[in-house]
Specification:
- α5 links the parallel β6 (104-109) and β7.
- The chain is 32% helix and 22% strand.
- The longest helix has 12 residues, at 5-16.
- The protein has one domain (2-224): Rossmann fold, CATH 3.40.50.150.
- It has twelve helices and eleven strands.
- The strands form two sheets. A nine-stranded mixed β-sheet has the order 5-4-2-6-7-10-8-9-11, sandwiched between helices. A two-stranded parallel ribbon has the order 1-3.
- By secondary structure, it is α/β, with parallel strands linked by helices.
Length: 298
């Protein structure tokens, strides 16, 4: 669990987008190991005289100092064990105690929830810990992490979890491939599955805001493409333009054996060129807090 260069950039961008880290809870104590050059890039955007080397040397390998830098007045760490100095020892497989509900302005999952067997309860606990106006910030494995934890996750799961029905609003779900950041479209709005196939590890970066108190999971989330079919009573659902165009292209692809042989070369193409539901965001814009793509400039 911890913040590498991309995790640090994501939290920095969230602060620029107005996220309050004033009263922060972290799921597991977060290690802090960004590349010095990348950390220096972030420090120079706010306080140019700070040295990344000195910052890292005094961080003792953990993220609390960086969270303080982002405006945290209090950081509380929750874990199943006290072996890394967690302030609260708790099993997130079980329901959350009332004393921890509606308490934090930010809850950070920097690689914890995929290791918890009872994921629905653990994510519900994370949501209940937030006060209204607070944010959940998740950095979680998506592709090519098989064996890392119990799970690796789909964007659809987080879009359906952080819904208005549960009292939340998704501000952004991002992923990154090589040096490019991408905003992921909501499958419900895109009109199809936002699938991604690649040959390198990929994370999801989730930013969601609590907008009101609701009974979380009063109704179980359902995958959006199936929900549309059930509602329409048919397996044939018209797709939006982008999804329909993509589907037509997929039907004209090479035979499977050729496609598999060419897959390593396809890894050099950007996500955007292969998947119209992934839209590139320039890192400079992201670090200024611009989490969404200007669709008019696509």
């Amino acid at each position: 669990m911890g913040l590498d260069s991309d995790g640090a950039k994501f939290l920095f961008a969230a602060r620029a987008a107005g996220v309050s880290f004033c009263n922060t809870a972290t799921l597991g104590r977060q290690n802090f190991f960004p590349a010095p050059a990348h950390l220096q890039q972030l420090l120079d955007l706010q306080q140019p005289r700070l040295s990344a080397g000195e910052f890292l040397a005094t961080s003792q390998g953990y993220a609390e100092k960086f969270l303080d830098y982002l405006g945290a007045e209090k950081v509380v760490t929750l874990d199943n064990s006290a072996y890394e100095g967690a302030a609260i020892v708790i099993d997130l497989n079980a329901p959350l105690p009332d004393a921890l509900k509606n308490r934090f302005t930010a809850v950070i999952d920097g690689g914890c929830l995929e290791h918890i067997f009872n994921f629905p309860q653990a994510i519900k606990n994370s949501m209940e810990m937030l006060s209204i106006g607070g944010h959940f910030l998740g950095i979680t494995p998506a592709n090519n992490f098989c064996g890392h934890g119990f799970y690796q996750f789909s964007p659809e799961l987080y879009f359906r979890i952080f819904s208005e029905a549960n009292g939340f609003l998704v501000r952004a779900i991002l992923t990154k491939e090589k040096d490019r950041w991408f905003q992921v479209a909501d499958p419900e709005k895109f009109g199809g599955r936002v699938e991604l196939q690649n040959n390198r590890p990929a994370y999801l970066f989730v930013l969601a805001k609590k907008i009101e108190e609701r009974e979380i999971f009063f109704k179980a989330p359902q995958q959006s493409d199936y929900a549309r079919r059930w509602e329409a009573g048919t397996s044939e659902i018209p797709l939006p333009r982008d999804a329909a165009s993509f589907s037509a292209k997929m039907r004209t692809l090479l035979p499977r054996k050729w496609k598999e042989a060419l897959r390593p070369f396809a890894a050099n193409l950007s996500i955007r060129h292969r998947y119209p539901c992934y839209h590139q965001i320039e890192e400079a814009s992201l670090l200024r807090g611009a989490f969404t793509v200007d669709q008019s400039r696509r």
